[in-house]
UniProtKB/TrEMBL annotation:
Entry keywords, A to Z: Transferase
Official protein name in the record: Accessory Sec system glycosyltransferase GtfB
Molecular function GO terms recorded: transferase activity
Length: 427
């Protein structure tokens, strides 16, 4: 299966997680010039620079292993890291997101004073994959893409939009713009007998020679899809929500569950943008056997922070995406009791992570949830439903199945058949 996307987005991540859950194999091609990509992913730049399989072997470069001129040193003051020539700073070293790993994302080289004149980018395999030369205004005028042997393979003259490919053998190739480069690369990459999942409708013309039966378009929402329907076999909806009505030719991917893989854990999660979480304090005190994980993107108000002293409460103000995803996978209960807007479509992601949804009809963030028996009119009724689950944890899987049936969540076997049919194409 071949996925074409404009960039690495939340929608692409969702699609990849779903395919992993279904056991489908796939490759990804992003139509930008990113150079720091995972092993099964390529871009316009890595198509030219990472043809050698060994280019995707290795780990991020530790900051102290940077190649620098003799007598230069890497100095660090906590997060701030730089190159020092004995008298002056010569470059900033910007570390990767995981600061504690102390590995290099890029190096910003200084000219006169501390004016940045060029930037070296390092990928997750530990080698320099790009160098940008900057104007006096700090804008790139030339991007140079390098292979593992540090040969200049692809040049992008930014202001003109021109690309120059410099192969190790044969003549150089000049491309007038990014669109021409995309077409040439995709012509070589498009598979003959695989399904193509397209996340960029601007490329429908590029894939028009592919049989319609092998094409699917992955959409964020249901608007303006009629014209696209004419060109593809399926439209796969990646929207963070549940459809109120079913439409021919559109398959909803949101909410896929794999019940048989799950076992019950007395762990509850609530993601909130407000300190107003109906019944939370009462639930915490009545169910000491449940650990309540309360997360927010920002600081928390006193109604939440006052619960910090409870042994069965864990608070996560300013939660990171990684920690949030860890909680999604470890909790068995999701509380949709918070007032105000929903954060990160968390209730739907809880469904996808095989959590039983508990909440109040006055607070749930999707009308469809009100049909669930675990969504009640009062906190007392919700407590009764939670008590049933805690007394009979063996009923957890059946509750998940009932939840999926009522909400009409996509079934693993149905989606598996759909992707297998796309892979089969005309055959």
């Amino acid at each position: 299966m071949f996925i074409i996307a404009p960039e690495q987005t939340k929608e692409l991540d969702r699609l990849q997680r779903l395919l992993d859950k279904l056991g489908q194999t796939y490759r990804v091609f992003v139509t930008n010039l990113e150079t720091d990509l995972a092993e099964q992913t390529d871009s316009l730049a890595t198509f030219f620079t990472q043809k050698d399989p060994t280019s995707k072997v290795g780990k991020p470069l530790f900051f102290n292993d940077l190649a620098v001129p003799e007598l230069w040193e890497c100095w660090t003051l906590g997060i701030t890291t730089y190159l020092f020539d004995g008298e002056e700073r010569r470059a900033n070293v910007v570390l990767r997101e995981d600061i504690l790993s102390r590995t290099v994302e890029r190096v910003e080289w200084f000219g006169q004073g501390e004016e940045v004149v060029s930037i070296d980018v390092y990928n997750r395999y530990g080698w320099r994959s790009k160098r940008s030369l900057l104007t006096e205004a700090g804008q790139p005028y030339l991007d140079i893409y390098l292979n593992r042997q540090q040969e200049e393979v692809l040049l992008h003259f930014v202001s003109q939009g021109i690309f120059l490919h410099q192969p190790s053998k044969g003549l150089d190739h000049l491309y007038a713009n990014k669109e021409e480069l995309q077409r040439v690369v995709l012509k070589q990459l498009l598979p003959e007998n695989e399904a193509i999942l397209l996340l960029d409708k601007t490329l429908l013309d590029v894939v028009k020679e592919i049989p319609k039966e092998r094409l699917a378009y992955c959409a964020r929402e249901t608007h303006d899809l009629d014209e696209i329907k004419e060109h593809v076999d399926q439209i796969l909806l990646l929207e963070d929500g549940l459809l109120s009505e079913r439409k021919d030719g559109i398959t909803v991917l949101s909410g896929l569950v794999d019940v048989e893989q799950e076992s019950f854990q007395p762990e509850a999660l609530v993601m909130t943008a407000s300190q107003e979480v109906e019944g939370l304090s009462s639930l915490v005190h009545q169910f000491p056997q449940v650990t309540f994980h309360v997360a927010a993107l920002t600081a928390m108000g006193p109604k939440l922070t006052d619960l910090a002293s409870c042994f069965n409460v864990r608070l996560y103000p300013g939660i990171s995406l990684g920690k949030y995803e860890e909680l999604l996978s470890s909790c068995s209960i999701y509380l949709d009791c918070n007032q105000g807007g929903e954060v990160w479509s968390s209730s739907l992601q809880a469904l996808e992570n095989e959590q039983v949804l508990f909440g109040l009809k006055s607070t749930v963030h999707d009308e469809a949830y009100k049909e669930l028996s675990t969504i009640t009119d009062t906190v007392e009724e919700m407590k009764q439903q939670l008590e049933i689950l805690l007394q009979h944890p063996e009923a957890f899987k059946e509750m998940l199945r009932e939840q999926a049936r009522i909400l009409e969540l996509p079934k693993k076997e149905v989606l598996g058949e759909l992707f297998n049919r796309l892979e089969g194409g005309l055959g």
